[in-house]
Please model this.
Amino acid sequence: MGSNAKTDNFLKAIRRHVKAQKRQMLSEVSQIKEEQLTIAKNKAKQDSEALIARRMAEKHTEMTCALAQKTQDGQRELYRERVRMTDEVFALSKEKLLAYTLTPAYRDRLAEDAQRLSALFGACDCVLYVNERDKDTAQQLIKCFAGHAEIKADKTIAIGGMKGYCKRMGIVADETLDSKLQEQREWFIENAALSVL
Model:
């Protein structure tokens, strides 16, 4: 074999070796690409899942806040409506009570109030407080009292009725229609099933 044949064989061997190396490198590059692509896909999947989860949490929080605000607004409106209805009912009641104070039945009620206060105070001196318009009528009722009774007009009594005060006993007895109406208002608010949810 001549030197040319040896050289050709040597070059062929080198080419085979280079081709084998090239195939191996291409295979390794392909494998590395595949691994990097898998890593990139997994990372992209994790990132997109995290982004979706974050956006969903943000949306949930946003919707929860909006619902809470609407609920609060609704409760506020229900409360205002409840107060308006209660005010309306008791304004009408007050009007009816004021009309009642112009009747003979009301004069009888004042006499009954005087009898109750007289029984409570006994022979002790007292002051009776009435609405200004009832002062003359109440003046006649002091005869019910065993002790000295003085009649005074009280501007806080807007509707009618009578309050009695006995200094010696330290007692204030309130038989006014104003306080009875207020007591009914408090009862109504507690029991009228107009609750705010």
